[in-house]
Please model this.
Amino acid sequence: MKKTAVFGLFLSFLSANLVSCQQGTCPTEEKIKAGVKELVSQGFTVESVQVLRDISGLCEVVIKVSGQPLVFYTDKKMKYVLVGNLLSLADKKSLTRERQQEFMKVSQEEVKGLQKHTDFTFGKVGSQKYIYLFTDPDCPFCKRSEPIVEKWANEKEVEVRVILFPLPIHPQAFDKSVALICGKKGWEEYKSGYNSKNQCEDGKKKVESNLQLAEKYGIGGTPTFIGMNGRVHAGVPTEKDLDKLVE
Model:
């Protein structure tokens, strides 16, 4: 009886110490903020700190800079910082990217604010289900996305609201975007690479407004999708990725 009681006390003691160890395995938010300030000059917020289950001694930290989630890894004392993609060899997935996607979300108020910036639509126009697409006329990843998004939008009866976002790395993309707006063109002309000398001032102002909007929302690349639920997906999507935007 005494042995059982002693063993029970030992288990309680061991359990309490394990919990205490687990709680202390990651640096505090204050320590993380102090460390990140040495690396990031902009304002930021700490969104999440947690132990990496499969890698002993490493903690995952998620911060947001200008609305954009950034994931990095550190030790329990915040002496070292590891930045980059953590890949799972078992399923060939980037755990870092998946974690970033979880934190890429905008508010419902911000979603509503996007409607007035729409340049044209396609899919099931007028549907109760909708997503926004920030896209560049000369972006190769956008071209890869087109058949995926078009097929999904037609099958799932979703309206896709396009916001033209020409990137500076594509020198003709700005003029093409302006031409599409000035010529009141749509999805089919966009896909065919439409361009013209019609570079009206209203079109230029609209595209400049789109660039400012993307910066405000922390969007730095194309294609970027924002769902009616506020979720954000960056890059070429799968149909499952798109489904998550209208759940």
Summary: Residues 1-23 have pLDDT under 50 and may be disordered. The chain is about 40% helix and 20% strand.
